[in-house]
Amino acid sequence: MKDHKTILVAWLFFSTVNGIMFPILPIYIYNLSESYIYVGLINALPALILMFMSFIWGTLSDKIGKRKEIIFFSCFVGSVMYFSFGILNSELLIVMRTIQFVFLAGAYLVPALLTEYFPEEKGKALGNFQSFGALGWVIGGLSAGYLYNSGYIFVASGILTLIFAFLITTIEEIPKNVFKEFYFFKFGNFKVLTYLALATIVLMTSSNIVFGLFSVYMKGFGVSEINIGRVSALTGICVVLTTTLAGIICDKFGSEKIFILTNFSYIWIWIALGITQNMIIFAIIYAIPVYSFFFTSANSMAADATSIEERGRGIGLLNSSISLGMFAGPLIGGFLAQLFNIPFAFIFAGFLCIFSTILALYLGSFYER
Question: pTM for this structure?
């Protein structure tokens, strides 16, 4: 199997774990604590760690010129921690999940590793990458409810993460130059990366207000854990069907244009969720695959703005921006849901996307491929 195909298969396993954890972990922690604040914390605190560690692991990989060793070590440690989760109370689970992300952050070097094989077709490569990730999300979402009811949700997640880590060790990484003069914060096109990061932070904050609350919201309408997992899987199916197309469109028309449209679209999607109480309509709107176009366009822009020797930091900065939104979003969402209600939090998320759209428009005004 060619190395880039091995990377895609490995990412399938890692994404399956994400597909399992995403819809069920908020319900699991809510059943333990009966607190929306804890639901926010179980998503927000790991994201805060991810914000710092994504950039740190990326910088270290640039410094030593190697990525797969970092991915293996960090994800091996992170995978072992899953096996303790089932015996922890709500407070300790939040603590251990947060510590776990010190290590699992290393997995998000995979896009940097993959784009090195495709210097002229980054969008297409990232589209294929996201397709495999979305397929894993589908598998995880479909199995999440059953694993939750059987009690093996954390054991299965640990095993799948171990498989991912060991598959990464089998690839032959493309050699990179290692510079004697190395600058931690001086790399790539600074202006592009700065505004890309700012727009991403705002967009991901709004998105994670919704992501952190959607399963609890549906549970409040009597939707079962199995069906919530199916809704999550539906989003993955829609992403699978669109990610390759997203990559081709980004390469053909420009990632910056797709990035602008992504931000604009989320304004209306989140507001629509806030005013919808029919769970079938809610699921259909939630599954609209805008994230395919965000992920592909943002990563392609970050890759274009950096050289191969700087890409760990470039992708790391983007992942840190995503993680900052993943940290702020659940906290804001949990607070708004506790103070007002969940639909108010969704509508607030939509209005927040107006600001990310403005930043994306300014970025598009000077961006050059």
Answer: 0.72
